[in-house]
């Protein structure tokens, strides 16, 4: 993994059951674009891939970050695994740097903040990136499915882990 220059964009894609969430940052605390793309109906992977291709074309990122599917504890379905593989292959074909991180690597990045769960990590992100603060959903009840807005925070955590892995940074989660 190489160090990025000052204005290069890092894009994270986080697949969801009904589409994907994405965040694009130009530095650790500077999001440029973010959102949740909803894809309904059949051919979700093909339609999601087309939306990701348009996003890559529009944003022209230098690096793409995904959650690692190699981790044996990765608990996502086959469709999501295939989508991540399709997205990674497309990005590599576009000469983008593709990085993947496991949940443990993400937790390790946020360890200094005391955040261990995905929701705690989302709270840290919301407290440090004001553009995301009003998007933090309430804590999930055990009988409810996860709020799709958490995908936005999962994507942001991937980008922040990318910056954490590239070396010490000002504004790294856990620093002031």
Please describe the structure with a list of short key phrases separated by commas or semicolons.
176 residues; alpha/beta; Nucleotidyltransferase, domain 5; 5-stranded mixed β-sheet; 6 helices; 5 strands; 40% helix; globular; disordered C terminus
Description:
The protein has 176 residues and is an alpha/beta fold. It has one domain: Nucleotidyltransferase, domain 5 (2-Layer Sandwich). It has six helices and five strands. It is globular and about 40 Å long.
Task: State the gist of this model.
The protein is an alpha/beta fold and about 180 residues long.
Write the layout of secondary structure elements.
Elements: E1 10-16, E2 19-27, E3 30-38, H1 44-59, E4 63-67, H2 78-93, E5 97-101, H3 103-109, H4 118-128, H5 130-133, H6 149-165
In the CATH hierarchy, the third-tier topology is known as: Nucleotidyltransferase, domain 5
| Rg, Cα atoms, Å | 15 Å
How many alpha or pi helices? 6
Q: Biggest sheet, in brief?
A: 5 strands, mixed
Number of strand segments: 5
Query: What is the CATH homology-level superfamily?
Result: Ribonuclease H-like superfamily/Ribonuclease H
CATH class: Alpha Beta
Secondary-structure content class? alpha/beta
Low-pLDDT runs: 169-176
